[in-house]
Design brief:
The protein is of the alpha+beta class. It is built from 16 helices and seven strands. The protein binds a DNA duplex through helix 2, helix 3, helix 6, helix 8 and helix 9.
Length: about 350
DNA sequence: AAGCCGGGGGA
DNA sequence: TCCCCAGGCTT
């Protein structure tokens, strides 16, 4: 593989075929950083509206650092992987207070910030500062695995380091920003996971998998285990026209987000008494269960969830939370100001209808 | 080295 | 249904 030929063909294709994306209209390192964080494990089309809102609302690290984490999570609501928002918020505080609001252009310094790993560092510093650092993401691994018929499974633990070597050997030292984006753009538009458009690929003449008709065999991937299933009973507890909302701990799954209190169950629906007792342990409240409102299903990365939602009434007691971080008695209107995760959003329409609005 | 962490869209 | 997306952190 001659790197010069590879670069020339790839960059020539990118110059005429790249998409116009919001974060390609700026040279602001902070804005590019925000885009890269949002794009982790997230499709371009999904990230675009979040990116626009985020930059409008928090145009500089200082604006982000000054913001309440709850408002940041609210803006992130629905995007998932909420630790990204918490880390970005923390990192903005460090940039604002220790680096005079300037994104560090030194890889080691930048990568020391929370949420900044090898990919983010290489992406932001190459695109914003022209540093010659090769990115390795899912696209890059797929393109290189086909190009060079690399047998290493891309989803195995050490895959990043394995693919970093050839990527570093190929990156164009004169155009690192365009080069990195070009490999990823090629992976997104041409060298797709399924049905790659090899006929339109500028690298097809260099590609071993294309030559051997083995494109479908790459990238190699370790088999994934199928996700287990969990069942939850969720309580909408009404008291004087308001409902009890609780905030999850800042760490762990959906950290810092709000929800209606819930308890794990075995999947049986009949045991309202057991449900009320578990809710009493969870919230400190004695409740009466009126009826089941609806059932929702939601898929997380590592498990699937079925949730039965029950309309309940507060009977006695003051709120004493077992696992939650805090609580509020909310109306539907005030609930809308809190960051709520997707599984709860899935029954908002049914809840609004039941409450007569 | 392995496990954890969301949500969506295409096939 | 399954796949997989501009990954990083914790243990």
């Amino acid at each position: 593989m001659e790197p010069e030929i590879f670069r020339k063909r790839l960059l020539g294709w990118y110059a005429t075929h790249h998409r116009r994306l919001p974060w390609r209209e700026t040279s602001d390192p902070y804005a590019i950083w925000v885009s890269e964080v949002m794009l982790q494990q997230t499709r371009v089309a999904t990230a675009i509206p979040y990116y626009q809102r985020f930059i409008d609302r928090f145009p500089t690290p200082g604006h982000l650092a000054d913001a309440d984490i709850q408002s940041v999570l609210k803006l992130w609501e629905g995007l998932g992987y909420y630790a990204r928002a918490r880390n970005l918020h923390r990192a903005a505080g460090i940039v604002d207070s220790r680096f005079n609001g300037q994104v560090p252009d030194n890889p080691a310094v930048f990568q020391s910030l929370p949420g900044v790993g090898d990919y983010i560092a290489a992406a932001v510093l190459s695109i914003a500062f022209g540093r010659v650092l090769a990115v390795v993401d899912g696209n890059v691994k797929r393109v290189l695995s086909r190009l060079m018929e690399i047998d290493s499974p891309v989803n195995r633990n050490g895959a990043h380091k394995i693919f970093k070597a050839p990527a570093t050997g190929l990156i164009c030292p004169k155009h690192p920003a365009d080069f990195n984006q070009a490999v990823m753009e090629l992976g997104a538009l041409i060298c797709r996971p399924k049905k790659p458009a090899c006929g339109a690929c500028p690298l097809s003449v260099l590609c071993l998998a294309n030559r051997h008709h083995t494109t479908a065999d790459f990238p190699k991937r370790d088999a994934s285990r199928k996700a287990p299933h969990r069942h939850l009973s969720i309580g909408v507890i009404l008291k004087k026209g308001k409902m009890l909302a609780v905030q999850r701990p800042m760490e762990g799954l959906l950290g810092g987000l709000w929800e209606f209190p819930a308890v794990p169950t075995d999947g049986e629906q009949g045991d309202w008494k057991g449900f009320a007792e578990m809710m009493a342990t969870e919230t400190g409240l004695t409740i009466a269960v009126d009826r089941r409102l609806t059932r929702i299903r939601h898929a997380y990365t590592h498990f699937r969830l079925t949730g039965d939602v029950y309309l309940c009434r507060h009977v006695a007691g003051r709120v004493r939370l077992k696992s939650a971080k805090g609580h509020r008695w909310v109306t539907l209107r005030s609930l809308a100001h809190l960051p709520l995760h997707k599984a709860n959003h899935k029954f908002m329409d049914a809840l609004a209808a039941a409450l007569g609005r």
